[in-house]
Amino acid sequence: MKLPADVDKLTRAYLKATREVPRAAELLGEARIAMFDSGVDQYLPPEALQRSCPAPFSLRIWPAHVYVLSAEELVERYEHLASFTPTSISFALERLADEPKAAALLEVARKLA
Prior knowledge:
Blueprint: H1 9-18, H2 21-30, E1 36-37, H3 46-52, E2 57-60, H4 63-68, H5 71-82, E3 88-90, H6 99-112
Parallel strand pairs: 1-2, 2-3
């Protein structure tokens, strides 16, 4: 089963409905976090981090995204994440079959750097 390009859409809608995202991001400031790795909470969308997180943050392209999305969709995902000005965007190559996808991600990363 192929997931849509924006696999986080339902997650963001759920969190918006619960109104917990802004408060969770605000707690980072109260805890005096100097740098936030979004990988510790995959349910905090980049929009909430950009809006509410007082600390610099990094973003990730999850292995599930690399597995199910095409190289073109991953490039779009990277560009979307980059629009939130994180300090870094990481991804992992878990299968050699995904090497062309990793090459596409590295190319867009160099272009946007």
